[in-house]
Design brief:
Order of helices and strands of chain B: HHHHH
Helix content of chain A: 10-25%
Largest interface: A-B, 11 and 10 residues
Radius of gyration of chain B: 12 Å
Oligomer: heterodimer
CATH superfamily of chain B: ACP-like
CATH topology of chain B: Non-ribosomal Peptide Synthetase Peptidyl Carrier Protein, Chain A
Structural class of chain A: alpha+beta
CATH topology of chain A: Thiol Ester Dehydrase, Chain A
Structural class of chain B: mainly alpha
Largest sheet of chain A: 6 strands, antiparallel
Strand content of chain B: under 5%
CATH class of chain A: Alpha Beta
Number of domains of chain B: 1
Number of helices of chain B: 5
Strand content of chain A: 35-45%
CATH architecture of chain A: Roll
CATH class of chain B: Mainly Alpha
Strand order of the largest sheet of chain A: 1-2-4-5-6-3
Number of strands of chain B: 0
Distance between the termini of chain A: 22 Å
CATH superfamily of chain A: Hotdog Thioesterase
């Protein structure tokens, strides 16, 4: 499965699609990136006259690339039969270290902890362009598909 | 291992995932993981993986689907341990 095939299968669209490109995809993990749009709607409010990427958006970027894209890849046999997966975030524990400004490109590195009984749990890290660790943590999701 | 000991071990395993303390305190074989203890389906997977580690057994999807209450968990563990 290619990066574009996986992205096309995602159930998101603008302004809530946070995957630009997947650079490494395997059974064990996934890497990808996303460039924060300068004019993204959330910068108008977070914060007043001081745009900084909200932690929930960074978490979403990590979840979409690190868990959902990996899940689509791991479930490709089902997904390719045109049975679109239903996805639910079930838990996230993230520590944040650095701010991310509008226009920055961030890279997500995700490592599978396990994928059992339709639950995918991953250790996910997000880096800025300088390669510095911005945030990291554990994110889990459940994958179901229409029978 | 007595059945009482088995319930005791299960109590330790489920404790991090329960949302209903009262139901947990009086946990019996009839206690339902989802309806009584209010464990969500994602955490039920963790309960099952912890049971696998604790008893050194492997669960398949069929066992997983049956594992809805304490009694069925005990039956499955007993069956796997006696193979």
């Amino acid at each position: 499965m290619t990066s574009q095939q996986i992205i096309d299968l995602l159930p998101y669209q603008k302004p809530f699609l946070f995957v630009e490109e997947l650079t490494t995809i395997s059974e064990k993990g996934i890497e990808g990136n996303y460039t924060l749009e300068e004019e993204a709607y959330f910068y108008k409010g977070h914060f007043k006259n001081n745009p900084i990427t909200p932690g929930v958006i960074l978490t979403e970027i990590m979840a979409q690339i690190g868990v959902v894209c990996l899940g689509v890849f791991l479930m490709q046999e089902v997904v390719l039969l045109n049975k679109s997966p239903q996805i639910a975030l079930t838990s996230s524990t993230i520590d944040f270290f650095l701010p991310v400004l509008p226009g920055e490109k961030v890279k997500v590195v995700s490592e599978k902890i396990y994928f059992r009984f339709q639950k995918l749990k991953c250790k996910v890290q997000l880096f800025n362009k300088a390669g510095e660790l911005v945030c990291r943590g554990t994110i889990s999701g459940m994958f179901a598909h229409e029978k | 291992m007595t059945q009482q000991e088995l319930i005791g071990q299960l109590k330790i395993i489920v404790k991090p995932y329960i949302q209903d303390e009262e139901a947990f305190k009086i946990m019996t074989p009839e206690t339902d993981f989802i309806n009584d203890l209010k464990i969500n389906s994602a955490n039920l997977v963790d309960v099952i993986l912890d049971i696998e580690d604790e008893f050194d057994i492997e669960m398949d999807t069929q066992s997983m689907e049956k594992m809805l209450d304490v009694k069925s968990a005990m039956d499955i563990i007993n069956a796997k341990l006696n193979v």
